[in-house]
Amino acid sequence: MSTEVKVSEQGLARYLTPQEMGAHFPQPDARLSSLERIASELQSRNFVPHPRFTSGHAQTFGAYYWPRGFMKRAHRADEPRIFEVEPGVRVLAHCRWQKDKLAHPTMILVHGLEGANTSVYMLGTAEKGFSAGFNVVRLNLRNCGKTEHLTPTLYHAGLISDLRVILKELIERDGLSNIFIAGFSMGGNMSLMLAGVDADEIPRELAGVCAASPTIDLSSCVEAIEWQANRLYKWSFLRSMKNRVRRKRKLFPELYDTKGLSRIRKLREFDERYTRVGGGYGSVEEYYERASSFHVIRDIRTPALVIHAQDDPFVPFHPFRDPSITENPYLIFLAPEHGGHVGFIGGDNNREDRFWMENRVVEFCKLVHEKVVG
Question: What value does the CA radius of gyration of the chain take, rounded to a whole number of Å?
Fold first, then answer.
């Protein structure tokens, strides 16, 4: 194993040995040697951006608008499933099962802020995952995917209790084992938080977690979204979030006050008025602090993959240089110079399609299932 951990010029993390980790990892884990081999294999898959999408903004917009409408048609037959995550609170998922689902591993996919289980990266990863032999559960967070009527409450970046309930139900009711959770953007933050907060109580059936473009430090993300270059992203998020509150007002008028909603101009203002209140946080600062996975990543003991581009427009790269990420031997960190936010559109490749991020997520899950879980 490597004797140091740092982000190389190629943006790839290397491992410390368990001994070098000191007291934080007191007992050597037999899984680590397998994870190091998996890391070497994944790090050999260099990301080469499409020649027309070489900036972070181009990668971000390009992935969003790339024509992939056929995927929605392909997933129309997926089985809808309602999970009751709290009394009176339900979320909708769509599931695609292998013929003998108990004999196959499972991927739970979690989308980002104002996304849905029909977001293109969700559908693309689901298609690849199913083709690789996984059952796939595409989750809608609370209210998302036109499900405002299923819950009186909003979602937020620290709401990992829903993931716990869904994971528990799939294990106990469905009898599934070898489950992976793959989150994107805010969903990536939630996936890492679950693995870190619950590090000592993770069910053995959770085989691994993946996080692509994760918003691990909410405060820095909210600051970055206010930059002039990011105004299109900010207004897109705000418009969607405001419209969601207006829809909630019609369904639950006693819970949502829309007076002054149109005057909100910053995500921080929205979070102060709605998100942190609904999440039970005392202040927006407390919300950003407690709902950021950055503070618990060092505690993760589950095989984990983090993918983050150094040119992500509104999820700054500097938190990813922290030793809490680079010194955790359970975590494989891929940090290409380019890729944008949940973008990673590659050039021509005879081995796989252009969507490098989706391919790495599925490859990680497959390798962990084969080489770590066995």
Answer: 20
Residues 6+ apart with CB under 8 A from 64: 120
| pLDDT number for residue 13 | 40
Query: Greatest CA span in the chain, whole angstroms?
Result: 59
d(C-alpha 6, C-alpha 14), whole Å: 6
Neighbours of 67 (CB within 10 A): 6
Task: Answer with the residue of higher pLDDT: 49 or 6.
Answer: 49
3-state helix, strand, coil in the chain (%, to 5): 45, 15, 45
pLDDT at 27: 53
pLDDT at 75 over 90: no
CA distance 129 to 141: 20
Token pair 């909603």 is found at 261
H or E stretch including 270?
A: helix 267-270
pLDDT value, residue 28: 62
148 versus 30: the higher-pLDDT residue is: 148
In 3D space, the residue among 32, 147, 39, 134 whose CA is nearest the CA of residue 84 turns out to be 147
- pTM of structure: 0.91
Give pLDDT tens digits for 317-346. 999 999 889 889 999 999 999 999 999 999
User: Which residue type does 72 have?
Assistant: K
CA distance 75 to 348: 26
Question: What CATH class has 22-217+292-373?
Answer: alpha beta
* DSSP summary character for residue 68: -
φ/ψ of residue 94, rounded to 5 = -125, 130
CA pair distance 372, 207, nearest whole angstrom: 9
CA-to-CA distance for 212 and 112, rounded, in angstroms?
10
Cβ(309)–Cβ(343) below 8 Å: yes
| pLDDT tens readout for residues 214-250 | 999 999 999 999 999 999 999 999 999 999 999 999 9
Distance from C-alpha of 169 to C-alpha of 264, rounded to nearest angstrom: 39
- Alpha-carbon span 209 to 132, nearest angstrom: 17
The answer to whether the beta carbons of residues 297 and 216 sit under 8 Å apart is yes
Where along the chain do its domains lie? 22-217+292-373
Region for 201 from its dihedrals, namely left if φ exceeds 0, alpha if ψ lies in -120 to 50, beta otherwise: alpha
Among residues 163, 142, 278, the alpha carbon closest in space to that of 211 is found at 163
